[in-house]
Each structure stands twice: as C-alpha cells, then as structure tokens.
Amino acid sequence: MRRIAVLLTMLGVACALATQAGAAAKPSVSIVRTGVKAGAVTVTVKVANWRLLLAQIGKQPNAVDGGHWHLYVDGKYVAASGALTAATAKLSSGAHRLRVELVNNDHSRLAPPVVSATVTVKLTTAGGVAAAPGVGPPIVDNMAGGDMYGY
Fold first, then answer.
1. DSSP secondary-structure letter at 6?
2. Is the pTM of this model over 0.90?
C-alpha cells in the first residue's frame, strides 16, 4: 500500500512538471525606443520568450523558440533584424506608423502572429535633416510603457 502511495505521488509530480513545461510563456515583442538621424528612424525592440538568431535568418529548419523580427513602416516591410535594433532608409517628413513582428528563420509568420503595438513617429525637415519636433536628440524612450505619438 505504501508503494502505491509513493508511486502515485511520483506520478503526480511528473504530471505537474510536464504541464509546466508544456505551458511555456508565449513570445512577445514591443518597440521600446526610436531615434532619428538624417531622416532614418532607428527602432529598438524588447523581445521576450523568443531567441534572436541572426545567423539563422533565411535558413531551414525553423527553430521552435527563435528567429528574428521584421520592421514595417506604413504597413510595408522595410527590414529584418536578428538584433535588438534596425533602421529604416530616409523617410519623408510627416507621420509614419511603425510596427514589428516576430518571424521564423525562413521569414514565415508565427501562428498565431506576434506583432507589436503600432507606434507613430512624426518627422519634420529642419535644414534638410529630418528631426522630431522638440528639444535635444530626437529620441523617444518607451521603456516605462505608454504610447509614443509625435515625440
């Protein structure tokens, strides 16, 4: 009888560990910082529960727990990155919508898709160099959360 109780206890512990392992945290990505230099916008992201695999971009097989991310400006793909930053080409003055998405090594979307909130930046031209309205280097820091609109 004692052996059965021990066996049932061990089985219960094994089931609990298997459930925890199967319930891995979902990946997420968010834009935490943007900067503007000569009209190009640099985007810094925060990635959780997903490994960035720079050397694997474009390769098969896809990793189950990693890949890279894509940067979109105004709904159009502009860059892929296996690091925490990426930059756009020079953008025109005006408002631009930025978002990022985690993707597999082969650039395919995750299921379900993992996409950041959209961030809007507004660029003005000052002496031929795009700058964000305001003082100092045109950088927005969103590490504390909230939205970044118009710097």
1. H
2. no
Ramachandran assignment for 63, one of left (phi > 0), alpha (psi -120 to 50 degrees), beta (any other): beta
β-partners of residue 29 are 47
For the beta carbon of residue 32, count every other beta carbon within 10 angstroms.
20
pLDDT at residue 19 greater than cutoff 50: no
Name the token pair of 80: 């892929």
> Counting every residue, how long is the chain?
151
Report the C-alpha gap between 125 and 43 in whole angstroms: 19
For 26-141, the fitting CATH number among 2.30.30.100, 1.10.730.10, 2.60.40.10, 3.30.300.20 is 2.60.40.10
Q: How does DSSP classify residue 24?
A: P
pLDDT for res 89: 94
Comparing CA positions, the residue from 125, 122, 115 lying closest to residue 148 is 122
Average pLDDT over residues 128-132: 39
In terms of Cα–Cα distance, which of 12, 6, 111, 31 is closest to 67? 111
b/e per residue, 84-101, with b = 16+ CB within 10 A? eebbbeebeeeebebbbb
